[in-house]
Amino acid sequence: MSQASRWPALLRLVLLASSPPLAAAFNNPPDVDIWCGKAYRATNASFNPGGWFEDTPYADADSSFRLTAKPRMSIYLDTDKTAAVLVDAVAPSTANTSSNADDLLVTISLGDITLGSASVAMGSSSNEVPVALASLSPQMDPYTLDITATSLSTNATLYATTANFSYLPYPDSYGSVARLDNLYGGTQAQRGKNSSWVDIYPYTYYVQWSLYWDANVSTLNDFAATYNMIHIVPTGTLGDTPFPWAQFQPYLDRAAELGIWLQYDVLWTPDNVTSMVEQVTTLRTHPSILSWYQSDEPDGKSNPLNATGLAYNTIKSIDPYHPISLALNCYDFYYSDYAAGADIITPDVYPISTNLTYSTEYLTPCNATYGCCGCDDCGAGPTVFSDIAHRLDEFRRRDELIGWAKTQWFAPQAFGNETFWTRYPTAPELAVMTLLGVNHGAKAIVNWDFPTTAELAGVTAQLAGLFNNSAVTSFLIGSPRTQDLGVVGGGGIVDAAVWVKEEEEENKTALVSIVNLDYDAVSGPVTVALPERLSVSGVKTNVWGNTTWTVEDGAITVAGGLDGLDVSVLIVTLG
Ligand SMILES: *[C@@H]1O[C@H](CO)[C@@H](O)[C@H](O)[C@H]1NC(C)=O
Ligand SMILES: *[C@@H]1O[C@H](CO)[C@@H](O)[C@H](O)[C@H]1NC(C)=O
Ligand SMILES: *[C@@H]1O[C@H](CO)[C@@H](O)[C@H](O)[C@H]1NC(C)=O
Ligand SMILES: *[C@@H]1O[C@H](CO)[C@@H](O)[C@H](O)[C@H]1NC(C)=O
Ligand SMILES: *[C@@H]1O[C@H](CO)[C@@H](O)[C@H](O)[C@H]1NC(C)=O
Ligand SMILES: *[C@@H]1O[C@H](CO)[C@@H](O)[C@H](O)[C@H]1NC(C)=O
Ligand SMILES: *[C@@H]1O[C@H](CO)[C@@H](O)[C@H](O)[C@H]1NC(C)=O
Ligand SMILES: *[C@@H]1O[C@H](CO)[C@@H](O)[C@H](O)[C@H]1NC(C)=O
Ligand SMILES: *[C@@H]1O[C@H](CO)[C@@H](O)[C@H](O)[C@H]1NC(C)=O
Ligand SMILES: *[C@@H]1O[C@H](CO)[C@@H](O)[C@H](O)[C@H]1NC(C)=O
Ligand SMILES: *[C@@H]1O[C@H](CO)[C@@H](O)[C@H](O)[C@H]1NC(C)=O
Ligand SMILES: *[C@@H]1O[C@H](CO)[C@@H](O)[C@H](O)[C@H]1NC(C)=O
User: Fold this and answer.
1) How are strands ordered across the β-sheet holding 177-180?
2) Ligand 5 atom 6: the closest Cα is on which residue?
3) Which sign, positive or negative, has the C-alpha torsion 24, 29, 33, 37?
4) What residue ranges in 215-298 does DSSP mark as E strands?
5) Ligand 6 neighbourhood includes 271 CB (under 6 angstroms)
6) What separation in Å is there between the alpha carbon of 33 and the centre of ligand 1?
7) How does 72-90 read in b/e, with b if 16+ C-beta sit within 10 Å?
8) Is residue 340 over pLDDT 80?
9) pTM
10) pLDDT digits (tens, 9 = 90+) for 351-400
11) End position of a domain, from candidates 454, 476, 498
12) Residues spanned by the domain of 105
């Protein structure tokens, strides 16, 4: 199997040692090929690639806190009855807390019109402040709402910010609309005005057109029986100009009949957006469209820095009714420029069976300024999996500093035996990568790539059952998540997270996900405690895994220890 569509630069160099250098790059000498901005060929010296993320100081250095605001849902429609803005009143760790103990009155307004207000505690986050939609008219361009925070004790306005807020007319010609929940990260879609919103935790693969779909339209039937979304990687004939609509249309028709969602992989180049405009214009009303995948690893390829942002604006101006996503390969190469191009960021972290410090492909060392090892700047943690958690956490940290509303998806490694990767992951490794991503906030899983091995297809078919189970997804995309739970035992490399349904008054329940990152069994007892004030009263269901957890002093424990790479997902009762 070939990765030719994804790593064209690298493969072309492998195949044609004398090929001309690529044109796109901007930070390198003209005859030095780069990936993630770094020289990677043994014949070229390392240079500083630049583009390292710099932590931006708080906007007002004197302020003891800062206010950030984003709409609860990425878009509202004129059929919506209620709306809200999520407000964080972030107290920096250096704050003089004695001077800001007051609660705040947060007011949302548009010009002279007050749209809503709520009192908010200093240092709190994700406060939902209602917005009165009746005072707004639906329009295609986002509103810029003014948000102010006033001290309840002195009435002084302490901080002001703005939030872009989309309140759109319902597009009657559309077969579907979709949006993101900026509170819990889920995707919601609606097929026509008369249907209700459905919550989706997308679980699927990137699937190669030329290696799978192109065989027969019936491939969709098999795939849709297991997975809730499809992503067609436009390899082979889908790269033809003009786009082969006659060949593609039966797939669209069949997807609509099957009711499967489509993340459409838009084909375009930074210097010619004609095909992007054509594809989005043609497909925006199709009932299967869930999201637009605008770029695959633009940072790795070092596309022009403004390319993803310009594409984002172009797509939004044609179709504001579906979210936009992209995948990033690099750990730290112009993150804020490339990530500006999407509502959904999917980091690619492929750590299994690659040498992280020495490129077996190009015979050079790999470090922060040089080399390509297939997993950029990886090796950050105590296990081979640790980069997955680290990458998601770090991207989210950057988003928070910038003040962005972004959703994170994750692309586990379901390929191998090629270029940098000496073998495929095993099924337990793939389950570990997947749930580790989920524990660290991934709100969809798109495995790279399909076709894959029978072993991996087997475990993803099982995992698809987990992500299609509303008893599970009602936690994953319907309740707040706490990661990095305290684990006693397990050698310090057992990762755990919990989701707690806050709206339940009595018999509260929680979902707990526990992942042993150690290949070896760890001896017991291994005990996972929930955050303070939460006490487990019983284990209700094992939704993944066969390890028997019991309750002891309000925590869950397994006396006999954990198998290597054990993954346990449990629904527990609290009380
Ligand atoms: C980089 O490597 C290429 C390919 O070997 C070579 O043609 C080019 O001269 C090198 N550039 C520099 C600046 O060393
Ligand atoms: C913190 O704020 C209090 C109350 O305004 C003030 O008295 C105190 O001097 C401040 N401390 C520092 C270190 O700025
Ligand atoms: C703040 O404003 C409210 C309402 O206008 C008023 O009742 C209150 O006295 C004011 N408080 C201060 C400290 O000025
Ligand atoms: C609001 O939208 C404008 C125009 O697209 C953009 O420049 C700005 O960064 C956005 N603001 C926020 C807070 O996202
Ligand atoms: C939606 O429901 C209304 C009222 O029941 C009906 O008149 C209309 O035809 C329906 N529209 C569609 C697109 O099904
Ligand atoms: C841009 O792409 C379109 C088709 O996608 C093609 O017809 C057109 O010639 C291209 N324009 C330029 C300037 O290359
Ligand atoms: C985008 O960046 C390219 C390369 O730096 C530049 O030539 C172009 O003018 C920019 N486009 C816009 C619209 O800013
Ligand atoms: C990576 O390659 C280097 C150089 O060949 C070797 O010394 C090292 O042991 C390799 N590391 C792994 C984890 O295979
Ligand atoms: C990365 O490796 C290259 C080649 O050995 C070396 O020249 C460069 O200084 C290294 N960079 C860092 C940041 O260590
Ligand atoms: C690994 O790749 C080689 C070369 O493409 C192929 O011959 C072999 O069958 C592959 N092995 C597996 C297990 O996929
Ligand atoms: C909570 O559990 C108790 C005991 O099983 C049961 O009697 C009660 O109906 C439950 N309450 C709710 C709201 O489910
Ligand atoms: C749990 O046990 C069942 C029955 O033996 C098996 O089919 C399933 O694969 C096991 N699940 C895991 C995650 O190991």
Assistant:
1) 177-180, 187-190, 198-200
2) 194
3) negative
4) 229-233, 261-265, 289-296
5) no
6) 8
7) bbbbbbeeeeebbbbbbbb
8) yes
9) 0.94
10) 999 999 999 999 999 999 999 999 999 998 999 999 999 999 999 999 98
11) 476
12) 69-168
